[in-house]
Design a protein that fits this description.
Blueprint lengths: L1 H57 L10 H10 L12 E7 L4 E7 L3 H4 L3 E3 L11 E5 L17 E6 L2 E14 L13 E8 L9 E14 L6
Parallel strand pairs: 2-3, 4-7
Antiparallel strand pairs: 1-2, 1-5, 3-4, 5-6, 6-8, 7-8
Amino acid sequence: MSRHRKTGRAMRKRMVLSSLSVPLMVLGVGFGGYNLLNFSQGYHAVDNRDIEASEFVSTAGEETGELPAQKVAADRDFDPLYSTFPEEGEEFGELIIPKLKAAMPVFHGADPDELAKGVGHYAESVLPGMGNNSVLSGHRGTVFRELGKVGEGDLLIVRTEAGEFTYKVHTVRIVDDMDKTVIVQKDEATLTLTTCYPFGFIGDAPKRYVLVAELVNSNTNKVNEV
């Protein structure tokens, strides 16, 4: 009788263990699949970022890529306008907008520190007056609060140590805040102004108001000419 009771207990124990093994196996497979999915997603995220970065480099010069630092450096080496380039955060010029009867200081760099003081010059673009694209940015609530009144045919004047450079606006654009086509190379001397848009928007504005202007007149300082 005792032997039968022991056999019964052993059988019940095996049945319990057997019934637990199935859920444990399912849980293990599910956990492994979840980790594999996360790994796969992370891998593709990194891969996509690498592809995007390489596309900006490979398409430089088209309307789809950023101004590469090496191209700007080359332009600096061969352009006679500037004997030296400004340091980050340095005030190096003045932007005059006749339509608004306004003049504002221009600082090298477009980080918050520079934009808090005036107009910021995107450091990876050429300086005003040089061939290629010179990009200036400003806050819509301060220096560029009336920029929406400026449009095609209006003039933009930049004064630096190299001289006075007059540009004429030929294009007005409204783009998404992450649109990289604003900061691209140009075949001709170009000035691009950009600020957040809409102007009266409360919070982080989703768009950018962009003015693109071509150089129509240069009065250079002879001391900087070769």
